[in-house]
């Protein structure tokens, strides 16, 4: 999996872009907020916390790694 880092980036880029845009729109509209007591305090312009950005990166990576692990164990059936 890590040998194919370009493939991982191509997979992650649209997912991260869509969800970051979605969050930024919801924050700007006042529909979505983050409790400062529950985040690291690092906030990007637009109000997006670092924690949220990492969530959008880490969760898809875990999904891809889980899929690859199952595929490796079960083989290409």
UniProtKB/TrEMBL annotation:
GO molecular function per UniProt: intramolecular lyase activity; lycopene beta cyclase activity
Record localization: Membrane
Ranges that cross the membrane: 12-33, 53-70
Membrane as UniProt keyword: yes
Keywords noted in UniProt: Carotenoid biosynthesis, Isomerase, Membrane, Transmembrane, Transmembrane helix
Residue stretches making up the Lycopene cyclase domain: 4-68
Signal peptide range in chain numbering: none
InterPro entries assigned to the protein according to its UniProt record, in alphabetical order: Lycopene_cyclase_dom
Pfam families: Lycopene_cyc (PF18916)
Membrane topology: Multi-pass membrane protein
GO annotations of cellular component type: membrane
BP-aspect Gene Ontology terms: carotenoid biosynthetic process
Pathway field: Carotenoid biosynthesis
NCBIfam families (alphabetical): CarR_dom_SF (TIGR03462)
Protein name: Lycopene cyclase domain-containing protein
Lineage of producing organism: Bacteria, Bacillati, Actinomycetota, Actinomycetes, Micromonosporales
């Amino acid at each position: 999996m890590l040998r194919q880092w370009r493939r991982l980036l191509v997979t992650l880029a649209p997912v991260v872009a869509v969800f970051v845009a979605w969050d930024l729109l919801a924050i700007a509209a006042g529909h979505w907020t983050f409790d400062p007591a529950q985040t690291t305090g690092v906030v990007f312009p637009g109000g997006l916390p670092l924690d949220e950005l990492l969530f959008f990166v880490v969760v898809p990576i875990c999904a891809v790694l889980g899929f690859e692990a199952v595929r490796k164990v079960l083989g290409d059936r």
